[in-house]
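Project standup — Tuesday

K.O.: blocked on the structure for the chain from last sprint. Re-posting the sequence here as requested.
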Amino acid sequence: MLHTNTVRTILRVVIGLCAAAVVAAYALGRDVGALPPPHGAVTFLDRGGEPLGTVLASDANDAVGVPLARVSPAFLQAIVAAEDARFEQHGALDLRSLARAAYEYAIYGEPRSGGSTIAMQLARLLHPTPSTVRGKLAQIVAAERIAMRSSHRAILEAYVNRVPMGGNCYGVESAARIYFGEPASDLDLAQASILAAVPNDPPRLAPDEHLAAARARARYVLARMVADGSASAEDARRARDERVLVGRHDAGVGAAAHALFYLFPRVRARGTVRTTLDRDLQRFVQAQLVAVLGALGGRHVTDGAALVVENRTGNVLAYVGSPDYFSDAVLGRNDGVQAARQPGSSLKPFMYERALERGAIRSTTILPDVPSAFAIPGGKLYQPADYSGTFSGPVRVRYALANSLNVPAVRALSRLGTNAFLTRLRALGFDGLTHPASFYGLGLTLGAGEVTLWQNARAYVAMARGGNLIPLRLLADDAPVHGTQVGDPATWALVTDMLADPHAREFGFGRGSVLDLPFPAAVKTGTSSDFRDTWTIGFTRDYTVAVWVGNFDGSAMRDVSGVTGAGPLWNRIMLHLYGTHDAPPFPAPPGYVRATICATTGHAPTPACHAIVREWVRPRDLADVRRAVPLRLGATYDAWLATQPDAPGVRGLRIVAPRDGEIVYAHDPTNALARSEQQLALRAAGADGPVRWYYDGRALALDAAQHAFAPVTLGEHTIEARDAAHRRVVRFRVVPAPEHERAGFTFSNGAAASRP
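H.V.: unblocked you, prediction finished:
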């Protein structure tokens, strides 16, 4: 045990050094109130200032900053009681506590009570020093610099925002959200005492892993609070007895995790960030996505994503990247908003707008929806098909777009040119389409290539704004932009009118589908090949809602299309947005006038027209549109006419099946029954009375329905048809069928189908 004179000597040296430190630090004071907020970890707020969550950085020195006004008074009182009971009565150093600690060290070889003040602890947090005499002196100097220029309130705020709270958690706000799932402002006395206990030994007192130890230390904290008068004995007793639930809440980011993690690298120096998100809407969309996917669970559907955007500003109001960010079972950390997927038919509106704008088609153009084959690079044939498996014959542009018919879209693109369409898509922000036009070919309008939900939503927002393209905004402080005009506003308005026409899409989607709302809304669906991706994207004058549903692992869903997969969620979000009012109507396309036309000719109706409609027309086209033109279907329609009981628009006898020059596959029959079933159905249109058929010059018998069938034998053959006034002949060839082909089907090498 040391002599009393030795102790006095040590005390004089320590006090002298401290005095010297005070003098040296006076001229070099530091105001911690002017410190930049802790960087790296970011607290995100919604558009109204409500907390969305805190994203912590991987750097262990990062923290989350909040003002003292947003920290529970119970915690502030608890942390002062636990770490520096005389905080308000001294400066950087508490000489009484320091002398006591020095005396204990001299007598017992170790301090029995702490001598560090909150200012000294803050100095060590800002400038880590070794646990040596020299390090302690450096800490004292740094603490004096802080105390000389900083208020007690500024010191306390800087400290509670940086104090270690276990693991990679720093600061009271992070700790409150991680351990209790709530902000620091809502901490009660029991929670506050537990958190105030942690800084004494963060690795061993982190409450998520060492709750018993943390509660034991919390009892000490409560006793100190009773001793200094900041808590009554009764309040302390209730806090000790309160059942406190502690967990790992991932800083409360669950409701908007993908959005916050997407933003984090862009704002990590800001500390607190206000976003454009609406917390209540975000939670609604998240919950509805989970519900919709649950209803589709029997069809192998596990994932989805959604965006809600305010058209006027481009502000993103809801950003849901998956049903559950923290579910590894369904790859929930993947962000369905930013992931590139095949868009199916969701790009068709942009193709039609460009084709209308350039005059490749006009609003009254009639497009053939018939079995078709298009030559593509590689010596192959491209044969688009529709989800329904049927064809509609001659259709107008409105009908083709609203019902998402594939063959008319490919024909319109063939008139426009793939390069012109690709250029327009890139102008609209689809910057992931980096290959040349020849790579995508005519399939570009059916979903060849990959886009993100973010890009698709931005392009639909542009459509809602008449072609004015603006960036989507997630940060409330970002300055709004005027945007870039892409295309003709009047043409965009026309396409919007088509997409908002529930009668036009009735053939493909029926009446009362999830696409039909009690207010005006333009909407388009898309389904990629093999049912891997489904999309529904639509807008009112106020909002754009974009939804993707599929599987992150790329596996196919079971018979889920855009309207049945993504459509229900789109419907629920739109109805929620207009819960108390209706969306305003879309304006009429400027510069267009209404004209009455025949639905199958695009001209003035004749007495033979069976469907008369009204369509928007450019005034310069009125004279041509008002001409009465009879329906005449050329050879392009032969394959479709072969399936029609009555053949409209054909004058004079015409053989529509088989077609002239057709190549037919034949299998080697294994028995007589197979040989008898391998026949080719013959069909004619525009006949004047009964038709007689001849196969290689031999007359064929008719069945009970007056249909004729030709045998399928290898070689070249002729089919002849005769009616009362005409004689027609076609030639076709029968070749052996490859293993994967079926007899009687026209040769093709490559096929594709996209769905609504």
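K.O.: great, moving the ticket to review. The CA atoms of residues 31 and 150 lie 5 Å apart. Confidence is low (pLDDT under 50) at residues 58-62, 740-753.
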